[in-house]
Amino acid sequence: MAGTVLFSLQKLNAFELTGAWTTSADKCGKVFARKGRANQVNFTNFSGAHGGGFIAEANRLRGKSDSCLIKSKKESDQSLNLVVMCGSGVMLSSVQFFLKVLDDDTISREFPGMEGMDVKYHRCRI
């Protein structure tokens, strides 16, 4: 029973990354739109001109022209460490993302070894 309670608490504290994320909250409608019969969130034609972003799904991250499979995910305190495998059609590459959770709708991608280098992303409610 104690194990069940502990598991439930861990699940409550887990950060939900799923959603559409952009570098500027006021540009959500210019970066993302719902399209198709499934009304799925996708990128607009000129999303890059408005800062771009990414779409996080259960097991992958999607950019305007890339799709990456999440190979591993480690969550600790207020941070997420993701290792993703991306394919360009010619080769596969492994990329590591260090994300700091600022609040439920704001994260910061940090670049280890590059002090002061980070990019903030805001969740879009589309």
List keywords for this structure.
eight-stranded antiparallel barrel, 126 residues, two-stranded antiparallel ribbon, disordered N terminus, 2 helices, mainly beta
Shape label? globular
Strand neighbour order, sheet with most strands? 1-4-5-6-7-8-9-10
Domain tally: 1
CATH class: Mainly Beta
Helix content: 10-25%
Q: Main sheet, how many strands, which sense, barrel?
A: 8 strands, antiparallel, barrel
Specify the oligomeric state: single chain
CATH fold annotation: Lipocalin
Strand coverage percent: over 45%
Count of DSSP strands: 10
Summarize model confidence as the mean pLDDT.
86
CATH architecture: Beta Barrel
The low-confidence parts are: 1-12
Q: Please give the radius of gyration in angstroms.
A: 16 Å
Give the end-to-end Cα distance, rounded to a whole number of Å.
39 Å
| Count of individual helical segments | 2
SSE run: HEHEEEEEEEEE
Which class of secondary structure composition applies to the elements?
A: mainly beta
